[in-house]
Design brief:
This protein has 346 residues and is of the alpha/beta class. 42% of the residues lie in helices and 16% in strands. The structure holds pyridoxal-5'-phosphate (PLP).
Length: 346
């Protein structure tokens, strides 16, 4: 690796498609997917539906689109959804649930993104003309703002059961669900099949350039088709992209534990840099949050000058987020640590 090359730890979305993936894309059999004619898209949808234990699935452009279509397909204007306060669907999707569907969000404070079963019952409003109808609980696994935390299956099941007891629908934002699987050994399907809808992202740890898949019942996915079209997300010979997704599932799923090892290596190295503090126990998957001895904005500018890219963590002024992925190996992590040490000392 040339010492001048940038080491990009901003996100697991920065990966570039490999030669093998590009070849699979180039050779994909395609058709017009708006007519349902694209065999590669159909294959991807069937594959993911089966992996997550749902009857049907829909290929969409992004994780945000998948979450928002799930919400729009299941709620009506003036319904209320519950989600953990740091959830992606409420914090990083441009207020879409309110703007697109007229849905009122209500946040619940979790612990590293995870809720407690007791929080659910008290958050569901009584039926009354005064209140919105509380209809849906959105969960996220792994939890991005929670530092890539993995829900223990028993806690997840207890929260879903509490939601069911109150008649709620449950959506799972599984943008990094396969990271949860890789870290915990609990298969993705064990989480996903408990929920009415569940998503995965192909463009994060799995390394595809684009795409997410939303899973649910045949009825929900039928409605999801309508909403995807409404949002301008229906695409034509999109098997070219679905082929990247299939390739990613085939070749990049089993290597996710490497990203987690690299995250631990990074976290341990960061913890040894004077003035830096990292909660090592919180590094469960591919995200590393560190508190630095200066404002994150200043630190990130210094890191950039030394050839390392990262992002602010967003809730604490001195905290930064680094993410390991397919395009960084152990050598890049070690080099990044040298550069970070130099940058913070300069
Ligand atoms: C947990 C989670 N959900 C959804 C998304 C949205 O994905 P996209 O950027 O493809 O819209 C992200 C993106 O980082 C995420 O971390």
């Amino acid at each position: 690796m040339p010492t001048t090359s940038l080491i990009d730890l901003r996100s697991d979305t920065v990966t570039r498609p490999s030669t093998g993936m590009r070849k699979a894309m180039a050779e994909a059999e395609v058709g017009d997917d708006v007519f349902g004619d694209d065999p590669t898209v159909r294959k991807l949808q069937e594959r993911v539906a089966e992996m997550l234990g749902h009857p049907a699935a829909l290929f969409v452009t992004s994780g945000s689109m998948a979450n928002q279509i799930a919400i729009g397909a299941q709620l009506r204007p003036a319904d209320e959804l519950l989600a953990e306060a740091g959830s992606h669907c409420l914090n990083f999707e441009g207020a879409a649930c309110s703007a697109l569907w007229g849905v009122q969000p209500r946040t619940l404070e979790g612990q590293r993104g995870q809720l407690f079963p007791e929080q659910i019952a008290s958050a569901v409003r009584p039926i009354s003309e005064h209140f919105p109808r509380t209809r849906l609980l959105c969960l996220e696994n792994t939890h991005n703002r929670g530092g890539g935390s993995v829900w223990p299956l028993d806690r997840f099941s207890a929260v879903v059961a509490a939601a069911r007891a109150k008649g709620l629908l449950v959506h799972l934002d599984g943008a990094r669900l396969f990271n949860a699987q890789a870290a915990s050994g609990t298969r993705a399907v064990e989480y996903a099949r408990q929920c009415d809808t569940a998503t995965i992202c192909l463009s994060k740890g799995l390394g595809a350039p684009v795409g997410s898949v939303l899973c649910g019942s045949a009825d929900v996915i039928k409605e999801a088709h309508r909403l995807r079209k409404r949002l301008g997300g229906a695409m034509r010979q999109v098997g070219i992209l679905a082929a990247a997704g299939l390739y990613a599932l085939e070749h990049n799923l089993d290597r996710l534990p490497q990203d987690h090892e690299h995250a631990k290596r990074l976290a341990h190295g960061m913890a040894e840099i004077p003035g830096v503090s990292v909660d090592l126990a919180s590094v469960e998957t591919n995200l590393v949050f560190s508190d630095l001895p200066m404002l994150a904005t200043d630190a990130l500018a210094r890191l950039r000058e030394h050839g390392v890219l990262a992002t602010p963590e967003g809730t604490r002024p001195n905290s930064v987020r680094m993410v390991t992925h397919l395009d960084v190996g152990a050598a890049e992590i070690d080099e990044a640590l040298l550069r970070i040490r130099r940058a913070l000392a300069s």
